[in-house]
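Ticket #4471: structure output looks truncated?

Reporter: J.K.
Steps to reproduce: submitted the chain below (55 residues) through the standard prediction queue, then opened the result file.
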Amino acid sequence: MKALDLNQVANYIADATILQTIDGGFALTHYGVTSAGNKFFLVNDAEGKSSVLEF
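Returned output as attached by the reporter:
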């Protein structure tokens, strides 16, 4: 997983297609596809920390 700051998250989401968002109470998990065709999970937690995992 790669940690992202708020600007990186905004840029990442702008170029991606989010297929599903899951509200886990403490964190939001976004599942989608990047513009390059890679699938990803992007997690934003309640403390403002974000990370992404591409596969």
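Triage note (M.O.): checked the attachment and the full token line is present. Helices lie at 6-14.
Status: closed, working as intended.
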